[in-house]
Amino acid sequence: MRTRAYFLFLAITSCLLIWYYINQLVDRSTRTQDMSGRLILAGGVTKFKDNDRTEISLVVVACNERHNEALNMLKSAIMFNHNRTPLRFVVIAEEKLKINFMEKLNDWQQLTDRVFTYEIHSLTFPRANKNEWRKLFKPCAAQRLFLPSLLSHLDAVLYIDSDTIFLSSVQEIWNLFRQFNASQFAGMAPEHEDKNAGWYNRFARHPYYGDLGVNSGVMLMNLTRMRQFSWQDHILPIYREYRLRLVWGDQDILNVLFHYHPDRLYVFPCEWNYRADHCMYMTVCDAPDGVKIIHGNRGYFHKQAQPIFNLIYTTIEEYTFGTDVYKNVIRTIEESLMLPSHSNCDKLLDKFLYDPRKHFKKKPIDGMT
Ligand SMILES: *[C@@H]1O[C@H](CO)[C@@H](O)[C@H](O)[C@H]1NC(C)=O
Ligand SMILES: *[C@@H]1O[C@H](CO)[C@@H](O)[C@H](O)[C@H]1NC(C)=O
Ligand SMILES: [Mn+2]
């Protein structure tokens, strides 16, 4: 009788232990699964615990040959993060590109004393209406429309196109969230500054935001508020109604949405999304404190039409972490630009280097005081 009670006790404790252990495992794996149930790859543990240094999340979607651009953008975010704000990179990528991102980002974590963490997600559509979404959009183009549900663990993100480069600290644009009033949940820059050159006011066959529309390449998103607004429930009807008239894909959908909900959008000035359109004919973007984020849309980083776009891109690409930014970036750009140039954008060299020059100075030569 005694031994039977003893075995019963043993059996129950083992069961409890096993149950506890399994729970722990399940708990841990659900935390690293994305919406589609596939495992996401997460790297690094953030080193920063003090509360005044909130982590900043940067989201980029990368398909096809876009992954080099995306990596270069993330590299610039690290380089100009002069106050070492903790960063979280959220990369949403095709399966075949994931390993490239992982290798590069792991490397950079070592070289930058883990100033950033990262997570890599699969391209994912929401469970509800999954098949309908899949049929309606090319996978990469519309991914950002689903960020509020895909990134349910995040309060807010900066969504940024892969064809962009930071020339200022991410903290600076993130601070614009503080300017949002109670109803605003997104921030974007105007598509154009000038009615004569505007695309939406001349060609669009659907409603758009304001006088000239907005450009979606750089977008602050308060995901919490977007979820409260039931964001996705607004997207599908817009798509159904306007899909045959959309030219610029998800950017047009955003323009339609904010046409009907202008109180939800905070419009920030053009220096946060600076494109060749702003300088190629004449300067239409003041950028009084310099260009903060440069957007090489329509391939300007990869052609010589406005050489400074390509020069900035390749100089960042060739930079090695840990080396002198003043010498290897600022001086290199100054010395490589052939002036006088026939390109109007090249003439604005001082606008492009305004912020980097402020934070990275020439190092005093040894032996001199
Ligand atoms: C986003 O909105 C929520 C709800 O209003 C707010 O608590 C949160 O601080 C906002 N996030 C940012 C980064 O502004
Ligand atoms: C926030 O600002 C927008 C644009 O100025 C405005 O339309 C909206 O009414 C404001 N919302 C609140 C709650 O003040
Ligand atoms: Mn772009």
From TrEMBL:
Which ranges of the sequence are coiled-coil?
Answer: none
Write down the InterPro entries for this protein, in alphabetical order. Answer: Glyco_trans_8 (IPR002495), Glycosyltransferase_8 (IPR051993), Nucleotide-diphossugar_trans (IPR029044)
Enzyme Commission identifier(s): 2.4.2.42
Q: Which Gene3D superfamilies match?
A: Spore Coat Polysaccharide Biosynthesis Protein SpsA, Chain A
Membrane topology qualifier: Single-pass type II membrane protein
Query: Which GO cellular component term is one of those annotated?
Result: membrane
Where are the bilayer-spanning segments?
A: 5-22
Q: Which GO terms describe its biological process?
A: protein O-linked glycosylation via N-acetyl-galactosamine
Q: Where does this one sit in the cell?
A: Membrane
Q: Which UniProt keywords apply?
A: Glycoprotein, Glycosyltransferase, Membrane, Signal-anchor, Transferase, Transmembrane, Transmembrane helix
Pfam families on file: Glyco_transf_8 (PF01501)
Its catalytic activity? Answer: 3-O-(beta-D-glucosyl)-L-seryl-[EGF-like domain protein] + UDP-alpha-D-xylose = 3-O-[alpha-D-xylosyl-(1->3)-beta-D-glucosyl]-L-seryl-[EGF-like domain protein] + UDP + H(+)
Question: Which molecular-function annotations from GO does this UniProt entry contain?
Answer: UDP-D-xylose:beta-D-glucoside alpha-1,3-D-xylosyltransferase activity
The superkingdom of the source organism is: Eukaryota
Q: What does this protein do?
A: Glycosyltransferase which elongates the O-linked glucose attached to EGF-like repeats in the extracellular domain of Notch proteins by catalyzing the addition of xylose.
Q: Which family does it belong to?
A: Belongs to the glycosyltransferase 8 family.
**This protein's name:** UDP-D-xylose:beta-D-glucoside alpha-1,3-D-xylosyltransferase
Organism name: Anopheles darlingi
Q: What is the lineage of its organism?
A: Eukaryota, Metazoa, Ecdysozoa, Arthropoda, Hexapoda
